[in-house]
Design goal:
binds magnesium ion, Heavy metal translocating P-type ATPase, seven-stranded mixed beta sheet, 290 residues, alpha/beta, 24% strand, binds adenosine-5'-diphosphate, elongated
Length: 290
């Protein structure tokens, strides 16, 4: 019977770490046309490492100390990487900050030692009028190599650049190939800048839409849905709304509680290949019914 076939499909998935919340999600996954992936923590491991510090007019240690001070209050993977790096470099007593605030997809700011210090994407820095020629060129070079670059600013001046690298998951390339072999179109959505996004996407073999704010991701999911069934894969940091907006939202790896709540499926193993496995499981289950 249909319910029995669905139930056995759901439990076959569960045995392989593919948790699906119900028959509707299981069925939709087989007909998926586009799979949109969040980059950070989904296609990449989500544990960026600091690779370069480029100070302007201050010392390297001061750049790191100020950046870590502002990032202390942020749970963003880039923030954690900067704070961890500062501590590893011996910056134990970070200055206390007040009035910290985050701008999702852009950066954070706080008052440090009486002055507002900002850290965020090069685009955010440009909007603040702070990214001058030399800094912009250095940032572009680092980005072309697949680094994410964040800019530390104070009083409209760039104090330095911090480059970070977040390695693709070991099976990301294979997981993308598996989806293409099933006739599914993968696309990467990222708030990261276009140069970094393009470098990583080219390496993994999929298209990319970069420099997206959380609201842009949401709008894009809507556009993609007009062309067919869309699955969104993410860990939910800033992106829970996109998971909810897709036909099937899939939480992956160390997903946040919000993501797990919002998603209609979850991959217990942090493996990109699990997405293609979901598609195959769905198609096999539906074939049993027909
Ligand atoms: P992703 O789509 O890769 O998950 P986000 O939307 O979380 O990226 O962030 C997009 C960009 O905004 C980051 O690449 C970074 O430049 C900037 N940004 C966001 N949060 C922070 C932060 N806490 N510190 C510095 N930069 C940040
Ligand atoms: Mg994110």
């Amino acid at each position: 019977s249909v319910p029995a076939a669905i139930t056995s499909g759901l439990s076959a998935g569960a045995r392989r770490g593919l948790l699906i919340k119900g028959g509707a999600a299981l069925e939709a996954m087989g007909g998926v046309k586009t799979v949109a992936f969040d980059k950070t923590g989904t296609l990449t491991a989500g544990h960026p490492q600091v690779t370069n510090l480029v100070p302007f007019g201050i010392g390297t240690a001061e750049l790191l100390r100020l950046a870590a001070a502002v990032e202390q209050g942020s749970g963003h993977p880039l923030a954690r990487a900067i704070v961890d790096h500062a501590k590893a470099e011996g910056a134990v007593d970070l200055p206390t900050v007040t009035d910290g605030a985050a701008l999702p997809g852009q950066g954070v700011h706080a008052v440090v030692e009486g002055q507002t210090v900002l850290i965020g994407s090069p685009r955010y820095a440009q909007e603040q009028g702070a990214l001058q020629d030399e800094a912009a060129q250095r940032a572009a070079l680092l980005e072309e190599q697949g680094n994410t670059v964040v800019v530390l600013m104070r009083a409209g001046q760039t104090l330095g650049l911090i480059a970070l690298r977040d390695e693709p998951r070991a099976d990301a390339r294979q997981g993308i190939m598996d989806l293409k072999a099933l006739g599914v179109t993968p696309v990467m959505l990222t708030g990261d800048n276009a140069r970094t996004g393009t470098a990583i996407a080219a390496d993994l073999g999929l298209d990319v839409r970069a420099e997206l704010l959380p609201a842009d991701k949401l709008r894009l999911i809507g556009d993609l849905k007009a062309a067919g069934t869309v699955a969104m894969i993410g860990d939910g940091i800033n992106d829970a709304p996109a998971l909810a907006a897709a036909d099937v939202g899939v939480a992956m790896g160390g997903a946040t509680d919000v993501a797990l709540e919002t998603a209609s499926a979850a991959l217990l193993r942090a493996e990109v290949r699990g997405v293609a496995e979901l598609v195959e499981l769905s198609r096999a289950t539906m074939n049993n019914i027909r």
